[in-house]
Specification:
Helix content: 40-55%
Radius of gyration: 14 Å
Structural class: alpha+beta
Strand content: 15-25%
Number of domains: 1
Number of helices: 5
Number of strands: 3
Distance between the termini: 32 Å
Length: 129
């Protein structure tokens, strides 16, 4: 399903972010106040947070067709990921990998959490100027 309308504020982010989202299978994404303005036929899943060159943090949302039965689990996983709780986040994403419409992406996120936990590093992504 393709959407031509973007809801919420739209921020100019670097090109590499676009390519990363495409590589993750995200077809339609937006940042800003999207959750408050999403139409009922779609739902926004928080998938990442980036810091721009002004040190402002922006949440990136994947826009998928409603309903998403495990939406609360995706939101829980995202919050744990942002709090650097990679052990809990890994388990949630790997559980979601076999059960959701975003299975391949959830599997990659689970693997990323496993890697971050193993090497003891905190995930940070900065968008370049």
């Amino acid at each position: 399903m393709q959407y031509s309308v973007v809801y919420g504020r739209y921020l100019p982010l670097a090109e590499e972010l676009t390519f990363l989202l495409i590589a993750q299978g995200v077809e339609c994404a937006c940042t800003g106040s999207l959750p408050e303005h999403c139409p009922e036929v779609v739902v926004s899943i928080p998938i990442d947070c980036v810091t721009d060159f002004d040190n402002k943090r922006h949440v990136i949302y994947d826009i998928v067709q409603n309903p998403v039965p495990s939406l609360h689990r995706f939101i829980e996983a995202f919050k744990q990921f942002q709090a650097d709780g990679y052990d809990i986040t890994e388990r949630i994403y790997l559980d979601l990998a076999g059960k959701s419409c975003r299975g391949a992406w959830a599997l990659r996120m689970g693997q990323l959490c496993s890697f971050l936990k193993r090497i003891g590093t905190v995930y940070k992504r900065r968008v370049r100027k």
